[in-house]
Specification:
Layout lengths: L4 E8 L21 H15 L3 E6 L3 H14 L3 E3 L43 H18 L4 E6 L1 H11 L18 E7 L2 E8 L15
Parallel strand pairs: 1-4, 2-3, 2-4
Antiparallel strand pairs: 1-5, 5-6
């Protein structure tokens, strides 16, 4: 019997409307910008050309709004999976991007002890574990076809690093995971074959002005 090929696409959500530069993390109420919605349409159109039979989204609004155009095109339901949510971060609600000096406050010092875990939020190993479990279940659900999981930059990147056998601690500036990008994990049966990457909305990235988390 020939083993089936299954692909699980890990999609980062589109641009978020965030004029205040808030590190929003898992906070509710942060939605896609107009540009982010355009990214969702463009990436959704790219994925709709593939053999996608199963859809998954993080419970956060920006992820659900990113998968919506694809779901409407394919007439497929979306499974909400808490395991693909944004990474936990103790700096949630701050504006560290615009005011990094906030981290100099003594109350934050204990959070900056170990950047390899990291000590300010959810350990990378825990992110990898939950993302692997979500990918496994999506692969089972779409066996012989393709699945799409819309998540967030750090969980997608950690999943990729883990699947490729790389160390999990890294320089965030070097992540290859732009807005509305697609990281594709291909399996033959139960075995990982390859990890690919595409940017279906690359032509829109130079317009990004808002939040990118």
């Amino acid at each position: 019997m020939t083993e089936q090929y299954t692909v699980v696409h890990l999609v980062r959500h589109g641009e978020v409307y965030n004029p205040g530069g808030v590190l929003y993390g898992r906070m509710p109420g942060f939605h896609l910008s107009d540009l982010g919605r355009a990214m969702a349409v463009q990436t959704g159109a790219w994925l709709a050309q593939r053999d996608v039979t199963y859809l998954v989204s993080s419970p956060l609004e920006r992820a659900q709004e990113t998968i919506e155009p694809l779901a409407e095109t394919l007439h497929l339901p979306v499974t909400i999976d808490e395991r693909v949510i944004e990474a936990g971060n103790d700096f949630e609600g701050l504006t560290v991007g615009k005011k990094p000096t906030q981290l100099l406050r003594p109350r934050f010092w204990p959070k900056l002890i170990n950047p390899t875990k990291p000590s300010w939020g959810e350990p990378y190993s825990e992110i990898a574990t939950r993302m692997h479990a979500a990918v496994h279940d999506a692969r089972e659900a779409a066996q012989g076809h393709e699945a799409v999981i819309v998540s967030h930059q750090l969980p997608v990147w950690i999943a990729r690093e883990s699947f490729e056998g790389h160390r999990l601690w890294h320089d965030p500036r070097k992540r290859q995971c732009t807005l509305a990008s697609v990281t594709s994990v291909t399996f033959r049966g139960d075995f990982l074959i390859s990890v690919g990457y595409a940017e279906p909305s690359a032509d829109l990235l130079d317009q990004v002005v808002g939040g990118t988390g």
